[in-house]
Structure formats: structure tokens, C-alpha cells
Design brief:
There is one protein chain. This protein has 65 residues and is mainly α. Helix content is 57%, strand content 0%. The protein contains 3 helices and no strands. Helix 2 packs antiparallel against helix 3. The protein starts with 11 loop residues before the first helix and ends in a 6-residue tail after the last helix. The relative contact order is 0.12.
């Protein structure tokens, strides 16, 4: 058995670049709004913020591009 040390692993920036190379379709705004309401009801501030940002991106494709 041969092993290399250290095992090469992608860095966070490399992973972000790789994710940015492929288009990811956003869910419909109605589904995102339902998720936003659910996050708000559960008092999940991070989830609510994420959903709110996704709602804006889904409603206006030019935002954040």
C-alpha cells in the first residue's frame, strides 16, 4: 500500500471557483418565500437571511451578477 502525505485537498477558494463554473437554477420564488416564512417562524435568522437573498436573486436575475 502506498500513501502520499499530506493528502491533497481543495481549498475553500478552489471549491467556490468550481461551484461558480456551473449554473445552478434557483427554485421558484413561491417556494423560496415559503421557506423564508418557515425560517422566520422557527426564528432561524441565518436561514431567513439566506432565503431572503435567494428570493431577490430569483426575482431579479441581474442582481449579484
Amino acid at each position: 500500500m502506498s500513501s502520499r502525505w499530506p493528502i491533497p485537498r481543495p481549498t475553500e477558494s478552489a471549491a467556490i471557483r468550481a461551484a461558480g463554473r456551473s449554473a445552478r437554477p434557483l427554485p421558484p420564488v413561491t417556494a423560496l418565500m415559503a421557506a423564508l416564512i418557515e425560517a422566520h417562524d422557527r426564528r432561524d435568522r441565518e436561514g431567513a437571511q439566506l432565503c431572503a437573498h435567494l428570493v431577490v436573486r430569483a426575482a431579479e436575475p441581474g442582481v449579484g451578477a
